[in-house]
Amino acid sequence: MPGLLDALAPLHGKGGGIVPRGTRTAVFQQIFDVFLVLGTLVGVVVVSYMLYNAVKYRDGEGERSDEFDPPKLGELPSGSGGGRKLFLSFGLSTVIVVSLVAWTYGTLLYVEADSPGEDEAAVEVEVTGFRFGWQFEYPNGHTASKLRVPADQSVRLHVTSDDVFHTFGVPELRVKTDAIPGRYTDTWFRANETGTYEARCFELCGAGHSYMTAEVVVMPPDEYREWYESTGNETTDAGETNASASNDGTANASAYDTATNARSPAARTAAVTGGGAA
Q1: Taking Cα atoms as reference points, which of 229, 237, 227 lies closest to residue 142?
Q2: What is the pLDDT confidence band of residue 63, given thresholds at 50, 70 and 90?
Q3: E strand or H helix at 61, and its extent?
Q4: Strand partners, 277
Q5: Distance, CA of 234 to CA of 230 (rounded, Å)
Q6: Which residue(s) pair with 179 in the sheet?
Q7: Each residue of 29-55: pLDDT tens digit?
């Protein structure tokens, strides 16, 4: 990997270059925009060419020159006449696709290479998934069911699970990584805008999977610092927040049970017949 990164370095200058820079959200958005524009352009060209040929040869009476070289199944075009166009089309398409794959792969490598180093002041948070909730633990021992982070600062997440496989993800921040029992997976992000985002589980983990969510609150740095300093008393805050995390998981499971019972045949029958009222 380092060799490939070094080879791509000239394309990744700090002043710009082919490979985009910025937060994970910005980089992935740029990749999406590039593929959207190119995909739209290719689609317009292909559909236009198909419509052109459909109109031109619609009656089957189009004249063909003696040099016309129709493609034959299992044979490589000879490179003359009509076969030359087909050969050039496939060759050009291959070059474009391979170039896009190489550019995208190089970009993703730089996303990981630009992750906060050991000497960078990054917020460290341990994320633990359980059925059906999330718990976040900070370096001072404070735990909570809500993830609070500062804006414009790198956040490194160490993700694991207490029971089964989960996947922690925050779509709006382009964050997603597996939560595996007995091991940790690391990921990072940097949020530029304050606000509240939703974290979800993206691995089917049981009956209450769809209720396994958590809030991610991005705060101004000063407010975050003030909040973090107020959580230093582990003897009270940790117990309260542990209970909060446990209660959130129980609430998620209870919400699932309520929704399931509401859909049960007995509940539907009672609702229709009025059997629930004595």
Answers
A1: 237
A2: low
A3: none
A4: none
A5: 10
A6: 166
A7: 778 888 888 889 888 988 998 898 788
Which residue in this structure is represented by tokens 């082919």? 18
Return the structure tokens found at 88: 């050039």
> If you search the block for the tokens 């994970």, which residue do you land on?
24
Residue type at position 196:
T
- pLDDT value of residue 53: 78
Which pLDDT score is estimated for 197?
94
Superfamily of domain 123-262: Cupredoxins -  blue copper proteins (2.60.40.420)
Question: pTM (2 decimals)?
Answer: 0.58
Distance, in Å, from the CA atom of 12 to the CA atom of 204, rounded to the nearest integer, reads 38
Residue-wise pLDDT for 69-117, tens only, equals 666 777 766 655 556 777 777 888 888 888 888 877 777 776 665 566 5
Q: Which residue did the predictor score with more confidence, 7 or 89?
A: 89
Q: What is the DSSP letter of 172?
A: G
Domain locations in the chain as residue ranges? 2-56+67-113, 123-262
Sequence-distant contacts of 168-171: CB under 8 A, at least 24 apart:
168/127, 168/129, 168/134, 168/199, 168/201, 168/202, 169/199, 169/200, 169/201, 169/202, 170/197, 170/198, 170/199, 170/200, 170/216, 171/198, 171/200
Backbone conformation region of residue 22, classed left if phi is above 0, alpha if psi is from -120 to 50, else beta: left
Tokens of 137: 């633990």
Helices 24-56 and 82-113 sit at what angle, rounded to 10 degrees?
170
